[in-house]
Design a protein that fits this description.
Number of helices of chain A: 11
CATH class of the largest domain in chain A: Alpha Beta
Number of helices of chain B: 11
Number of strands of chain B: 2
Radius of gyration of chain A: 24 Å
Distance between the termini of chain A: 50 Å
Structural class of chain A: alpha/beta
Order of helices and strands of chain A: EEEHEHEHHHEHEHEEHEHEEHEH
Helix content of chain B: 55-70%
Number of domains of chain B: 1
Radius of gyration of chain B: 26 Å
Oligomer: heterodimer
Shape of chain B: globular
CATH topology of the largest domain in chain A: Rossmann fold
Structural class of chain B: mainly alpha
Helix content of chain A: 25-40%
Largest sheet of chain A: 6 strands, mixed
Shape of chain A: elongated
Largest sheet of chain B: 2 strands, antiparallel
Strand content of chain B: under 5%
Strand content of chain A: 25-35%
CATH superfamily of the largest domain in chain A: P-loop containing nucleotide triphosphate hydrolases
Distance between the termini of chain B: 32 Å
CATH architecture of the largest domain in chain A: 3-Layer(aba) Sandwich
Order of helices and strands of chain B: EEHHHHHHHHHHH
Number of strands of chain A: 13
Chain lengths: 318, 312
Amino acid sequence: MPPGAGVNVPNSETVPLVSARNVSKSYGSHVALSDVSFDIEPGITGVLGANGAGKTTILGMIIGLHKSDGGQLQVLEQDPWFAGSDVRMRLGYAPEHHTLPPTMQAADFVQHVAELHGLPKTEAITRSSDALWLVGLGEERFRPMGSMSTGQRQRVKLAQAIAHDPAIVMLDEPTDGLDPVQRDAMLDLIRDVAERFGISVILSSHLLEEVEQICDGVVIIGEGRTLASGSLDSLVNSEATGVVVEVDADDRAVAAFAAQLQARGASVTIHQRRVTIEGSDDSVFDLARDVCADEGLGIVRMSRRRLSLEDVFLESLG
Amino acid sequence: MTTPNPIVPTSPASPADPANPIAGTAQIFDQGYRRYEGERTGVAGAMSSLVRATWRQALGLKRQTRNKLIPFMIIVFAFVPAVVFVGLAALLPDDFVNELPTYVEYYGFVVAAIYLFAAFVSSAILCEDRRTGMLGVYLSSPLDRRTYLAGKAIAFCTLLFIVTILPILLMLLAYSLQNAGPDGFGNWIETFAKIVLSGVAFGLVFAFPSLAVASTTDRWVVATATNAAMFPASAVVTDLLVGEGNLTPHLRLLNIPGLARELTFRIFNEPQASLWSRFDNPTWTLVLAALGWILVSGGIVWANYRRLLVRR
């Protein structure tokens, strides 16, 4: 069997790319992960969590650097601890730090990483060039990385992560240090990698906004536990209940409107001229309409409440 | 240079023009990122790439000139005596050629260059990877800590053999061409083998202690300075302890440059040039000491890397 042939990309219809079941990991008395369970499906998945939540430990376990103390972790249908080399051959990884070898040319670096992942030399040379063109560094590929800007180095890291055509690419804070324009360009590139080339992306980030912008799925880790996981749509929609009503009124009238709603048994929260009414059925719409009519208020907007990822994150943290 | 990526036209030029045989077979070639379906070279390929990258890293190849300066200067220093001796052998009358240093005595002229090279290169290849985060990149490839360290050790030792073997082989070849080499093919092969064996032993005795020092710090300047000081210090201290302190002669086995040189004298069987008494330090104790240095130093490297928290 040729090297790497033992690793198959799972059938996306049946088997998740990464599957964790009750995974635990401790370092001495410190519990890094406790009964963590989640699935990562093809597409772009964001791994979210505060510093020290356990994100790095999970990434390390997916790469096969750490052995779990309990539970089962499968990456590309293999246990990364026992099949570490085979699994890592099909993984791309872009580290968080920017301190790449300063004297090394970008093209040499990307070629070297491609060779490390099993590409023959001639193929690695070709693909390093292609990957650097893809990320917009074609003209800069023979520059030493020490002379590159943070944005360029982030692109080099993406290029080296995808040059060997991985099944999964893991990006650790890929927009760290970028200005808004560079950030959007990087997110477009990541989306491109996933959609045009079918490479699944696991994105570790603490920026909820960018995760919400490009991710299909989310795993939220907190204090070593899985707080939430699943597709972004299902998480945002399942958590959202109630109706948001924006009325054309001053603060006093908004307060009176809210008081009327509460008098009729509704649970409400006020944010400027927006009133959120809790409730899961359509009668909430009728209630809001009736109270507005009674109070003589104009309705600017009335819609089902939609949570942002930040809401989900904060709620899952409790 | 990229491999063309053929895009077969969805509606090829058909029917083919009989007057133009090229028509209908034309393809548009595109280049750009695409999927890779070929075989992968596995851990062996990754180690091979690591070894080659380490050679480039240590010698500053494919980097700016200032990165090449120190390693190539040391290599030149290691070769200069050989070139001088070869020149003298060519210029001097035959009677004086026998007065030139023997192969094994050559190490006395270049021992400083060898330990400087070991100090500089070991620090460059280990410390830089940790400082620049390359270690994390390596460990997220098919390499693990064992194969990473094995690749680094292979690359380092082969580089050291450039300065411990090649200059003396150059002397052997030059002397042989001037009819001043070993007599007969058998003797020539035996001398060749002794030179290689001596160079390997000499290189290994310096290689592993310097790697052990380099594994303890991320700062290559600190590692280089410590290594450069450690080798002569081990000689001075043990000589003082044995010579002035009248302690056991076995303490000399802690003298790394002395141990390396004495091993080469024993390999060439040149007792008249030997540094140490064969009664006080039998050859088997030298071999054990060399193995001890290699194993203990290798153990220190492994212990440091096994518990190293990889920065990502």
